[in-house]
Amino acid sequence: xxxxxxxxxxxxxxxxxxxxxxxxxxxxxxxxxxxxxxxxxxxxxxxxxxxxxxxxxxxxxxxxxxxxxxxxxxxxxxxxxxxxxxxxxxxxxxxxxxxxxxxxxxxxxxxxxxxxxxxxxxxxx
Length: 125
Description:
By secondary structure, the protein is mostly helical. Helix content is 73%, strand content 0%. The chain contains 4 helices and no strands. α1 packs antiparallel against α2 and α2 packs antiparallel against α3. The chain is elongated and about 50 Å long. The relative contact order is 0.18.
């Protein structure tokens, strides 16, 4: 199994790509603020999941990277809220993206609560 096989990774990667496509229509003046922020935070979710999976031999690092991923996912939700408030996305798009983000959060938390199912060794400290 690789990190690409993880459902949390697959869904978070797909979400980041949807956000990338949607954010292409954001106004030019948002390029270095909202557009950049939402793209960075959404991409960090899957990147941190990948890093966590590679840190399976170190339970505390696995946990830390997954909590970083969860935090980035929450940040993405905030940027989605700004996107709808600024009327850059429709209610339908917001609901779709936000619901996927919530699902990703649940998958990340499942990994945090069930590390052994992902090959994490028992912490000996």
